[in-house]
Design goal:
alpha+beta, four-stranded mixed sheet, two-stranded antiparallel ribbon, 5 helices
Length: 166
């Protein structure tokens, strides 16, 4: 979605650029790098992101990990004006992320040998965990920013890729 299309919808409260602090990233697989790139691409194509107290956007968001336990958001308008920064504890996400990685591994293993019904059941579980993590992320951000569900899903995918260890 172009900037003009964003502006004709819900105003200019959206992320136009997202950068990840590479120094805070763990070593990762090509698959996770691909998933991160796809999530960023999808997020930038269509998102709704409104930092509380911000009268206008669009936004450049820089994210990274601090000591492996906090997700840091640094938010600026695309014109460079600061919209603040905030952080979230990763502790509430640990179980969901661990379970999500386990079920993703099961899904990839099942693709080779399982029936389509078994694959579908595993995929439903994977989507359910992803949705649970997305809802938790939306709730965790409620004191900092308003985001819609699909934006939260894409941010949760990024959170998983930042959190994953080799």
């Amino acid at each position: 979605m172009s900037e003009d299309e964003h502006k004709s919808g819900e105003g200019d409260h959206y992320i136009v650029e997202l950068n990840i602090d590479t120094d805070s990233l763990p070593a990762t697989s090509q698959e996770m790098l691909h998933e991160r790139r796809v999530a960023i691409f999808d997020l930038l194509e269509e998102n709704e992101f409104r930092p509380l107290e911000s009268p206008s956007g669009p936004y450049v968001v820089n994210i990274g990990l601090q000591d492996g336990v906090r997700l840091i958001f640094d938010v600026k308008r695309s014109n460079g004006s600061d919209r603040g920064n905030f952080s979230l504890s990763l502790q509430p996400f640990r179980r969901i992320i661990k379970d999500y990685f386990l079920i993703c591994e099961s899904y990839h293993n099942a693709i080779r040998t399982a029936t389509s019904a078994q694959i579908e059941a595993i995929d439903m579980g994977r989507r359910g965990l992803h949705n649970e993590g997305s809802r938790l992320l939306t709730d965790s951000l409620r004191n900092h920013a308003e985001i819609e569900f699909n934006t939260s899903r894409r941010l949760f995918t990024l959170l998983c890729s930042l959190h994953r260890r080799p």
